[in-house]
Specification:
Number of helices: 4
Radius of gyration: 15 Å
Number of strands: 8
Number of domains: 1
Shape: globular
Mean pLDDT: 93
Strand content: 25-35%
CATH class: Alpha Beta
Order of helices and strands: EEEHHEEEEEHH
CATH topology: Alpha-D-Glucose-1,6-Bisphosphate, Chain A, domain 4
Structural class: alpha+beta
Helix content: 25-40%
Largest sheet: 8 strands, antiparallel
């Protein structure tokens, strides 16, 4: 049931991904806001569904599949996981969630939009305010994480994160070459 669409570049600092996932919308929403469910595809961490609330996300990419694969040398700093701080900017359950993304001095922003499409749910992820140097890596990250989410919602075991991410990152880096 996984429906993958290519990355859309909406502006030099804005990317968008869309996935058609098994519903209902409340189920998909729970994978955005519940720490245990979000930890199965992205990162764990308790989050208050209230505008202005701060929360931490704990990323441990190798643990997203049953077959942990260590990161490539370039990403060894992430081997034991990484924690980042975020803030809720908008929250309209179960349809819209916007959060800041990581860097505290000048954070980017991620919006998750959910809409029912029959028995499925369209998830649109838009990441804004990206620095040019972060576009390829962020694109590869979202593409990989959304594939893991689709696998989880479909009842499949996801592929190991790092090999999939490395392949997608190389593709996105290649797209940025002049």
């Amino acid at each position: 049931m996984q429906s993958q669409s290519a990355r859309q570049v909406l502006a030099p600092d804005t990317i968008r991904f869309e996935r058609l996932l098994p519903g209902p919308v409340e189920r998909v929403w729970s994978y955005l806001v519940d720490s245990d469910k979000r930890g199965q595809w992205l990162a764990s961490g308790s989050m208050e569904q209230r505008v202005g609330s701060e929360f931490q996300l704990r990323f441990h990419h190798a643990q997203l599949s049953q077959t942990p694969v260590p990161p490539p040398e370039r990403f060894k700093a992430y081997e034991d996981g990484v924690t980042s701080t975020h803030r809720v900017l908008a929250c309209e359950p179960p349809r819209l969630l916007t959060i800041t993304w990581a860097k505290q001095d000048d954070p980017s922003e991620v919006t998750f939009e959910l809409a029912p499409v029959g028995a499925q749910v369209r998830l649109v992820v838009t990441h804004r305010k990206l620095k040019p140097a972060d576009v390829a890596g962020t694109s590869g990250g979202w593409d990989t994480h959304l594939d893991v989410l689709a696998d989880r919602l479909d009842g499949h075991l996801p592929q190991p994160f790092w090999p999939v991410f490395s392949h997608l990152l190389a593709r996105y880096e290649g797209l940025q070459q002049p």
